[in-house]
Design goal:
5-stranded antiparallel beta sheet
Amino acid sequence: MAVACSSLTAGIDADGNSTATTASITPGANRLILLSVTSRTGITANPNEPTASGNGLTWVVIASIVWDSDSSSRKRTTLFRAMGSSPTSGAITISFGGQNQTNVIWGVDECTGIDTSGTNGSGAVVQSATG
């Protein structure tokens, strides 16, 4: 079986709050759900690593990197994975631990034809690397 991915939602939140909420999605059972989040602060501090919640799933960080860290508008990109046998419909809440973000951009993709072993999609993600 070939791996295939499709977009469930994408968006931007520029309200300057410490949380952002996606549109409602309906993930399929035992499908790998990937959430990519890029955020920016308007201060000279690195953006907090976000957490994600929603859809009855456990969202696990695969990788999180800070970039443009020498500017006064620092940025972070974080990639999450999740998978479950009976996810629920609804929005995903992205939280930055009380730190306001100038902009938050996200994309949510659903992949089929993947390894469903492991917990929360761990079998489908072989490894991550930074550098």
